[in-house]
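Hi support team,

I'm filing this because I wasn't sure whether my run with iron/sulfur cluster finished correctly. The job status page said complete, but I'd like someone to confirm that the output block is well-formed before I use it downstream. Pasting the exact inputs I used:
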Amino acid sequence: MSLPPLEINLKSLSKAQLLEQIVKWGEPKYRAAQIWSWLYQKGITEIDQMTNLSQSFRQMLKTQTWISKAQLKDQIQSEVDRSTKFLFRVAGGEDVETVLMPDGNRLTVCLSSQIGCAMDCAFCATGQMGFFRNLPVDGVVDQFLAIQTKLQENTDEYIRQTKFNNKRKITNVVFMGMGEPLANYQQVVSAIRILTDPDGINLSGRRITVSTVGLAPRIQQLAEEGLGCKLALSLNATTDEIRTRLMPINHRYPIREIMSAVRFWVETTGMPVTFEYVMIRGLNDSLVDAERLCRLVQNIPCKINLIPFNEIEGSDLHRPEERRVERFHRILTQHHRVAPVRYSKGRDIAAACGQLRTIYDQAGTRLSINPVPS
Ligand code: SF4
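And here is everything the job wrote out:
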């Protein structure tokens, strides 16, 4: 029997791959569930911590496998709403930003799926970074595990001050950090399988939201995966002209095509969709836009989130006046389920929607996760 290659990161394997490996190692199949539970429910990072595995098996694992973890490099907490932005170095040496947002009894973590982003949305600081790399599945899940471990250890002064919820457990996940999750499709789907697996992290799919710019074929593919997760579509405009200006991907997948993918999502999953609408002064915030938006989403079971633009350095886009936002909101509420206007969390630490950006000097050294003055 040929031996598997050395140095397998256990967290890079899907459950089926782990099972296959266990069989190759000549161990009983139930070991897969045991290892899965150590990795994802107990959050261990050393093979010797898996105490229900025999010494000899652990020894063998140590010669052939390892366990990745996200190393905390920096963190900063909002004075306004206690959101916390973390900078982690994940396996492969990548630096990635993750945000934890407390809201009543909810503790939502906003995960990044890529280093930078290729989508180049005009309102987004991550887009200004350009695209570096896709994160592997372990790079995505390790962000979650590092924060979960921090919450449970309760040794972090920031987190103790904040108190969050009594359970100190992450309750919700949104893929709204750095990157377009559906452009890193396979790794994000694998991460959601780990997040929802009963032997894994065991979150309900309904507590996980994938937010996309509208990669129409991927939306349809995701609908057919049966993951039970929720979909948010970053719409942001009611005409192709404005949307293409704000989101160049609209050239490839114009509004009509995206809306048809969204209808497919609703029909296939039976779940409503959330439309995210970042409001930008003078571009998409008129009453005509509000009326057009109502028509666009007509007959689609949905919720609409209005997000007044969070200003970023290097952009000439501006936030609309509050009364304009409220007027827009009022029109929508006459016809649709609209959430209260979302004044994003973490604005003072540049952790709000579209503000994540790792700053590098010319030699490529990361300088700071501190807020970019706008
Ligand atoms: S909004 Fe999302 S998809 Fe667009 S550039 Fe930013 S990270 Fe990428």
